[in-house]
């Protein structure tokens, strides 16, 4: 066996020390001499080696060690190599398996490959053949693991989520968290680009319908003439061009959530049908019979619906049906303290998307972004960071990587703070300190000068607030 494995009469190479990234191979054979010979070969090649004389012993080792490749004899007493292969794929699916097979059992080895084996080597074994096969199996396992890790990382980076910890955003999420478990209709209000759809998805993900579909419809993006059919579906022959039956978005969202964005753009006829859904939980596809609606509706708009009602463009009864729980998403200028977090998130997304190293945003870039009013809100900030990630030539963003409108913007004026009559003085003081610190970008000395108090007082007051 040793002669067969060495493949020549030349002296065996000295044993190489296994490196930190060396693959671990588990050799399984019921013949002790074969185990010893193969173990020496892999050790000389710098691999870590485990040995087992039975399938049971091999599985015990797999439970306690990370093994890249199992090299096992196909024909063994008791549990065969095929049965061991199946057990390995259940216990450690990522581990690659190479089979050793004698002449006359090649067909069985091919069958084993259909069940997940990576390769097979025929006896009599040759040293370079088994090293090459095991090395390739280890490389494949490493590539599969790396690809899975990259896909997961990219998925996490590109998954659109709500980023921020500002008080204004926390208040929105508190209401959304409370509303999510209910079946109540939610109306999400806010300017364009503030993330109204993200709030709708947050509500869906925290509801009992989270395992159902989330179907989003931009009512302003679909022509008025086909919006009704798009929402409610139609039967074959219901109108000219309806050559086949088609499901609408309500049917596709069954068991889940239907998000109606830009709800203020609905035509009067569609408003009537939507009102029926909200009142009766049913609708009629065009040319079809009544269908039960199994959806939770979340709507959104950047319009003032009360003004639309006054102008006769939106039904008042529909508004009150939609406005069971209203959530107003704050504009980015009202949550400037979230800008550094958003910048870091978008840099991660677009550096990965453009296959470049992770960029940093130095203080002067963040300061310039904080001074800009962002009329396009988070969507505009995202576009700005994507542009900067593409154009940046160094390892850090510079002010020159920002659009001219931001480079030349003046510092934003401080916002007016309003208080209700009867607000306790300590609450007034608390909000003034927090808002002034936010305006001063966290600089306590500047905040103290603006408030006309000492820096020591700022620290003392912060201690009282945080305590």
TrEMBL record:
Residues 162-390 form the Sigma-54 factor interaction domain. GO terms for biological process: phosphorelay signal transduction system; regulation of DNA-templated transcription. Residues 24-138 form the Response regulatory domain. The modification 4-aspartylphosphate is found at residue 73. Keywords: ATP-binding, DNA-binding, Nucleotide-binding, Phosphoprotein, Transcription, Transcription regulation, Two-component regulatory system. The keyword DNA-binding applies. Residues 1-10 have a biased composition (Polar residues). Residues 1-23 are annotated as: Disordered. GO terms for molecular function: ATP binding; sequence-specific DNA binding. InterPro entries: AAA+_ATPase, AAA_lid_NorR, CheY-like_superfamily, Homeodomain-like_sf, HTH_Fis, P-loop_NTPase, Sig_transdc_resp-reg_receiver, Sigma_54_int. It comes from the Bacteria. Pfam families: AAA_lid_14, HTH_8, Response_reg, Sigma54_activat. Signal peptide: none annotated. The keyword Transcription regulation applies. PANTHER family: TRANSCRIPTIONAL REGULATORY PROTEIN. This is Sigma-54-dependent Fis family transcriptional regulator.
């Amino acid at each position: 066996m040793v002669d067969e494995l060495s493949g020549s009469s030349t002296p065996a190479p000295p044993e190489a020390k296994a490196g930190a990234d060396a693959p671990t191979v588990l050799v399984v054979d019921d013949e002790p001499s074969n185990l010893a010979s193969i173990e020496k070969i892999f050790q000389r090649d710098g691999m870590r080696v485990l040995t087992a004389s039975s399938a049971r012993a091999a599985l015990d080792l797999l439970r306690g060690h990370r093994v890249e490749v199992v090299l096992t004899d196909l024909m063994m007493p008791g549990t065969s190599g095929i049965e061991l292969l199946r057990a390995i794929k259940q216990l450690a699916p990522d581990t690659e398996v190479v089979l050793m097979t004698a002449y006359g059992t090649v067909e069985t080895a091919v069958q084993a490959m259909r069940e997940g084996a990576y390769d097979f080597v025929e006896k009599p074994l040759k040293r370079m053949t088994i090293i090459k096969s095991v090395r390739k199996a280890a490389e494949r396992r490493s590539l599969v693991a790396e690809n899975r890790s990259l896909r997961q990382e990219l998925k996490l980076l590109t998954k659109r989520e709500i980023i921020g910890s500002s008080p204004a955003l926390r208040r929105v999420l508190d209401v959304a968290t409370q509303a999510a478990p209910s079946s109540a209709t939610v109306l999400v209000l806010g300017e364009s680009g503030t993330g109204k759809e993200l709030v709708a998805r947050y509500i869906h993900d925290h509801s009992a319908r989270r395992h159902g579909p989330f179907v989003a419809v931009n009512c302003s993006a679909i022509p008025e003439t086909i919006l009704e059919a798009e929402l409610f579906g139609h039967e074959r022959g219901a109108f000219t061009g309806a050559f086949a039956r088609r499901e609408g978005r309500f049917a596709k969202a069954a068991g889940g959530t239907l998000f109606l964005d830009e709800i203020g753009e609905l035509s009067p006829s569609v408003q009537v049908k939507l009102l029926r859904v909200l009142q009766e939980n049913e609708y009629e596809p065009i040319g079809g019979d009544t269908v039960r609606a199994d959806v939770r509706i979340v709507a959104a708009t950047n319009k003032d619906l009360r003004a639309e009602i006054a102008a006769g463009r939106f039904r008042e009864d529909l508004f009150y049906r939609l406005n069971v729980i209203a959530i107003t998403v704050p504009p980015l200028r009202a949550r400037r303290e979230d800008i550094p977090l958003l910048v870091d998130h978008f840099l991660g997304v677009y550096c990965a998307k453009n296959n470049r190293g992770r960029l940093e945003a130095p203080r002067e870039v963040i300061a310039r972004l904080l001074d800009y009013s962002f009329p396009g809100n988070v969507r505009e900030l995202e576009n700005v960071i994507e542009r900067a990630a593409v154009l940046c030539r160094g390892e850090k963003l510079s002010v020159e990587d920002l659009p001219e409108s931001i480079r030349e913007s003046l510092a934003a004026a401080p916002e007016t703070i309003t208080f209700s009559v009867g607000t306790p003085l300590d609450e007034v003081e608390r909000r003034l300190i927090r808002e002034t610190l936010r305006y001063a970008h966290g600089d306590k000395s500047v905040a103290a000068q603006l408030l006309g108090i000492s820096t020591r007082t700022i620290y003392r007051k912060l201690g009282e607030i945080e305590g």
